[in-house]
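User: I'm curious whether this sequence folds into something compact or stays loose and floppy. Could you predict its structure so I can see for myself?
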Amino acid sequence: MFKRKTRDPSIPLPPPTTSKDFRDIASTEELSEPCRKRFCRYIYDKEKNLYCGRSCTSWISIIAYSILYLTFLCTYTLLFLYGSLSLIKFMDKYESVDKIELMTYSKQGIGLSATPTSVNTLPIISYKAYTDDDKQYVDELDSFFKRRKRSSDLGPCGSSPFGYWNEPCIIIRINKQIGWSAKPLSNDTNDIPQDVKNWMKTDQKLWLHCHGFHSYDKEHIGRITYYPDPPGFDPALYPINMTDDTPLVAVQIRDFTFGISLAVECTLYYEGGSSSVAFLLYVTPKRKVILSV
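Assistant: Here's the prediction. I'll summarize afterward.
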């Protein structure tokens, strides 16, 4: 008789085949599918009626929760800002600014404006002598005078090229301020230049005087010519109508030193105060051309 062989207990039995193995085989087949087909199936699965792996009910729940969460965050932020502003107003002195006050200046003085300025709106006039580099300033002055309803008698500073390529002009005006007016100086003091003291003997105006900011600038600035001369603004025109053109004073710089930055300050003198505007003038000297024989 043949003896039946018994299994050695030290040898493990092979694992039984389950449905999980079939799922692994199915997943392997799915991976073998083209990426485009799998991507389309992920976007919309017709068999399970899923969009990006979720049902319509699930997507509606997620969207509704997101809207509620964002609404809560916005409401919380607005309440926090409102509470912070209320606390600041309570702890500190807070005054609202009326729109009409935005067009006014402080009681310490009126503002002045100088035209032209450089392209980046800084009060610097810089160009190369005898070249077209200063055409930007001529164009700015042309545009400035075209916007005005009436012309002013400013001598050579009132028409193109406004002294450029030789002796540049700067136009000074008082900024518009609702209700602002000033009286001329009633008596001379030690704080005003000698030129202003001499002008006061001839007329009563709001006098404008320009000079070098430092002693170095005064030494190299040469001569300053005004249009009109003596330079001043008629106090009877103020307070000025906001739709009217402001009076102008032209300042022409002559015989200045080339190749040096010159700081020029123009000060308006009137009873009870003064106002100033400053700008820089830099002109590159003309290059000498050496001809070889």
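Summary: The helical segments are 19-31, 35-43, 56-91, 135-146, 194-200, 215-220. The two ends are 134 Å apart (CA to CA).
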